[in-house]
Amino acid sequence: MRLKRRPASDARENLDQLLDLENGRMSRNMFWDHDIYEQELEKIFARCWLFVGHESQIPKSGDYITTYLGEDNVIVVRQKDGAVKAFLNTCPHRGNKVCFADAGSARQFVCNYHGWSFGIDGGLKGMHASEAYEASGLDKSQHGLHPVAGIESYRGLIFATLDPAAPSLAEYLGDFRYYLDAVFDMDEGGTEFVGGCVKSVIQCNWKYASENFVGDILHAGWTHDSGARAMIGGPVAEVHKFPEQSYHVNFNGHGWEFNQDIVGNAATLGEKDLVKYLYNLQPRVAERLGEVRSRMIGSISSATLFPNTSFLPGQNTFRTWHPRGPGQIELHTWTFVNKAAPQDIKDKWRKGTMMTFSPTGVFEMDDGENWEYSTKTNAGFVTRQQDLYMGLGSNTRLADSGLPGNVFKGQINEANQRAFYQRWLDLMKSKTWAEVPQRDTPMLPTTGTAQEKAA
């Protein structure tokens, strides 16, 4: 089946023609059309809860980081009372960027242009030649830094939204919190980021990266074969041949693909001490969180928090795919570790993530090249008339798994990708949050695969 064609300029008015989830087809214009991208900034990035930092990055009053909500630059700063606030990083006088540093500690922020100064609470405190402004009747209380609409934390992860009508963070994450706890609450004291932030640019559409991490283990045995052989002296395990302990789970666009091998991802770092650490930790995690989640802590798995935050348990890389137009992302990457882990274990994880998922990492280069050419090929007019396929696997949810969210058995499945794009479509079509559907059932109730029936 081929999707009905329409001019790219009509993309915003014909969103339903971009996706045919029933048949697993999608239009390439989703990854190329600039009008669609502008709508994404408004309907997705200006609405959703987006990751802005980890509590460990701003432990003290005045500590701050700067980051992005879509293409809106923001300052995230710890307050005197311990709370966290975030503001648009732009001066309300002439719009200049206020803070140029990525991170630091400050008692105030001062604009380079006219000397407007702001407290860590965002309030306007003063400016150069203040008497001139006073003579004009300027009310300083009305010209502070513009705050984000909401900022909340979960298990040390800080999120912000620009939409005052957005649901709470707890509602937004929903059932997915059950799975987040497997990694970010596996040990007493939680997690922390170590080693700073690595930034890089990839010439690809942001959705290619997000959908890869939402559940595409199938590419690893091919794309990352040479990298795995260099790291551990052998191929990536062909986990798709062993579906009985493998799952896809999703909730409102968030997705996690995992198996139950405990240490599969960690093993690819080539550090036996990391594998030993996780095996020793697993019984304690089972006591805290149950057997299923205790076997996820470093397993072969990947996850995406809709729309643009992803991480890999075991390899412990955490990243945000910041959009920079339909054909470019700015990637921010960190290493996360258990705060209570020994220092040598933390150091080995930091080194391991640099070797695998950094601009020169053996796996990152593989992925980046694939995503770039998946984007660039859409420059061709005739090429853009050809649909893309995402119909692998079954759409039958596992009804008796005992796990929350939409659960699917087996590795050969693009159910999480379909759920990701359904959430994308729901948000793009909805004028308000109240109109966005809550999808806690499978989108396409069809018969299961032979493997699922056997399981």
Describe the structure.
With 455 residues, this protein is α+β, with helices and mostly antiparallel strands. It has 2 domains: 50-153, 3-layer Sandwich (Rieske Iron-sulfur Protein), CATH 2.102.10.10; 176-454, Naphthalene 1,2-dioxygenase Alpha Subunit, Chain A, domain 1. 27% of the residues lie in helices and 23% in strands. It contains 14 helices and 21 strands. It has an 8-stranded antiparallel beta sheet. Strands 6-5-4-7 form a 4-stranded antiparallel beta sheet, with no helix packed on it. Strands 1-2-20 form a 3-stranded antiparallel beta sheet, with no helix packed on it. The radius of gyration is 23 Å and the shape is globular. The two termini are 31 Å apart. Residues 6-11 and 442-455 have low confidence and may be disordered. Pfam families: Rieske, Ring_hydroxyl_A. Belongs to the bacterial ring-hydroxylating dioxygenase alpha subunit family.
Any descriptors?
455 residues; alpha+beta; Rieske Iron-sulfur Protein; Naphthalene 1,2-dioxygenase Alpha Subunit, Chain A, domain 1; iron ion binding; Ribosomal subunit interface protein
